[in-house]
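Hey, weird one. I pasted the Acetylornithine deacetylase/succinyl-diaminopimelate desuccinylase-like protein sequence into the form twice and got a warning about non-standard characters only the second time. First submission, copied straight from the form history:
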Amino acid sequence: MMKTHIFSRSPLFYAMSAALLLTACGGSGSSNSGGETPATPKPTTIVDGIPAIDPLIASASQKLMADKKIQDIMAELNTAASEKQRYNQHMELVRIASPSRYENRMAQEVHRRFVNDWGFAASEVKTRADGNLPGSDVQIVDGLPVYNACVEIKGSYSGSSGAQSYKGQYPKVLIESHIDVVNPEVLPPEDKKYQPIKLQPITDPVVTTPAQLAAIKTELAFDANGRIIEDDNYARSSKWFATQDEAKAGGGVRMYVPGYSDAMGNTTNVFTMARMFKKYGIKPVYDVWLCGTAGEEGKGNLAGMKQLYGFEQDLGTGSNPLNFVANFGSEGGGTVNFTGSYRFEMKFKAPATPGAGPSAVEAMASTIAMIADLKTPSEERSDALKTTYTVGQASCEAPAAGSDVVPSCSLLVDMRSERTDTLNEMRAKIEPTFKAGMTAENTRYSKADGSPEAVSIEQVWYGLRPAFVNGNTANIALQVGWQAAQSVGVDNTGKVPSGSTSLNDNVPANTGVPTYNWSLASDVAGGGGHAFWEWGTRGDPKREAKRIQRAMMAVLMASGYNLSDGTVIAPALGPVGVRTREVK
């Protein structure tokens, strides 16, 4: 039995407080500033979907477009050699099986490439193989290590006179995308750590079963070092197209591999940005961190972002211990509102003493029935933001041989809303039903809760994605991202999306850090996100290069940048980031 409430966008908005928006305005200048405080762009408003852009940001964008190092990077990104390098890197990384919360192999390979392939010193790699992140006050999430992969481009600010820090952490700007996938759900053995990349003509029907996928014999080939082999299959797969129709007419192929688009197509270009910044000696003012993050998918519980932002889910607050002043996600389309969720996995367990009495199956069924009768806040009040809840999965263990007793049943319940207050209202209704369903079943047989003859209950897992509504405020991250798109001429969406989504960005936005997101990949077609049959077909690499340029410019406008001519673009934000909890 399941009851699903359809979620729709509400016109209800609220404004962030000035304390959250200004991020300690009156911040630093550059290494040339001598500790002076230059003018800082201000948050503006979104009017009819269009964000107003502070003139300082518009000016900074013009300077970056004319900067010689940025132009040199773009010249390289548009060469055939760079286009091939990006494609090869994507294929070589996406095949590494990286289930959410078990991303250690992927992180290990990224760490290796940071140092051996992309020119970074070991000291510039900020994450560790064991999952520890120095400086954070959240290291373990849901009892597991967090396998982020982050590298730093050091800025000039920390060496300037009068530089400010938060408990020793100088200001940073973060750009990230996740390295985990939904499939496979569990970490395969070492000898199966690579997933095949199957090739199928795009004109053929999309596969619908694992057997159909396995029956495709054409695959990309890789050598013993994990490097792609440039054979005939490589030539077919690497060919790009401007449209899906052109792909169908020109011999285009689907490349089947989990994570192709969500999110390695984006994440690998975050690493390309890191490589370009390092190669061309890009010198921001504030430090810039470029990260492949863990735990975005499935039960990942946004673990990677919770570590980076010191977000304690039991408290619902972020300490921002590393002092990020702006956040850019690379797995979205400019969304500024973020749907939050509470997720529970509850296990109903059969009585310890067998007998003709309470049943785990019936206790779970009783709970589902109680949940189905509940009304959301928007069903009860016309002014409340709509909320969705669902019993996402109900499953039971098979009885032991020779027994008809079901040992346990598990129930997954999901609540979603853009507002924390409506989420809390729904949680206050649903959470008591877990115990009530158990009690109702025990009462049917006159058994006391907690007795050996009674059904018991255990909370196996709790997931939290914090909610956030941006309202009509054009925060600084939105402004620099929007302006960069206009300057570069890519992804000019016309209006800021009014809907909401659920991404890594939930964590920094809820913590108060100015946040914006975009896409960095270029696919002409794709499908099967989160499925075993996820696929994509390569799109125009020059569009991909423009998307990377847009991201570079936005990040450098936020962090500040030492231009090639010796002048400085001052940071767009003050040097002390926002937080909702002080570092322990």
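That's the output from the first submission. The warning seems to come from a hidden character in my clipboard, not from the data itself. Residues 150 and 291 are 4 Å apart (CA to CA).
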